[in-house]
Design goal:
Blueprint: E1 2-7, E2 10-12, E3 18-26, E4 28-29, E5 34-39, E6 46-51, E7 57-59, E8 67-72, E9 77-82, E10 91-101, E11 108-111, E12 115-119
Parallel strand pairs: 2-12
Antiparallel strand pairs: 1-3, 3-9, 4-10, 5-6, 5-10, 6-7, 8-9, 10-11, 10-12
Amino acid sequence: QVRVVESGGGLVQPGGSLRLSCAASGSIFSVSVMNWYRQAPGKQRELVAVISSSSNTNYADSVKGRFTISRDNAKNAVYLQMNSLKPEDTAVYYCKIRGRSRPALTEADYWGQGTQVTVSS
């Protein structure tokens, strides 16, 4: 009974910015690590950014200095601020949220539906 909804994707010019949002709703609780992945056409899915329960962050080398991941624990939400976008950033972006949902006693990963980001002139 957990739903994960993404928003914020779209078409932007090179050098532009987008802010992606991802929020989990329903019975989820004890949310821990959150991730952003992306999958470009013809390529495998890659990990873009990670934020831990203590807000420690890590990024793929290709986006360091341009992307910022953040979280809002009260909303069970994770965000990805993307600046200085490049055509090679074009991909479907997916969020993943680790948490618990009754009656489970262990953690599970919940995925967003994906949102398209296109960087083109």
